[in-house]
Amino acid sequence: VINGLALQSALETLDVFTRLVSAIEMREIAEPYIRRKAISHLRKGRVVIFAAGTSSPFFTTDSAAALRANEINADVILKGTRVDGIYTADPEKDPSATKIDELSFASVINKNLKIMDMTAFTLCQENGLPIVVFDINQPGNLKRIVQGEKIGSLVTA
Fold it and tell me: What is the location of CATH 3.40.1160.10 in the chain?
């Protein structure tokens, strides 16, 4: 929720209309998550920020993102990480790792690449929801992706 509040604050300083929605009720700082309302906010041009995961301890933040993205019929999942995409191996441990700009869901599985938990990955794969993996710590990357620039790695069907 704290990250959601920080993102909301940053976007609002740029005059972007936002709504922070939470799976756990905390009305003082976020609206409760209701699928229909979230879609309504999106149709009105607002950025909807999902917080507090699914409110279930058995699901990761990746699974929550995949679930919510599928529920609202999102075009893509943007997965911000510490590295600038998907590599043949962990680039923080293997200096010979090479970046892969675009790959299929099947090749991620065949190469045993760990880009997110399998529940989240399977939700995206089964629903044809592309995933962009990018370096969230690089200033301007999120804005560049939203504006259509190719950043990071893309996983598609």
Answer: 75-157
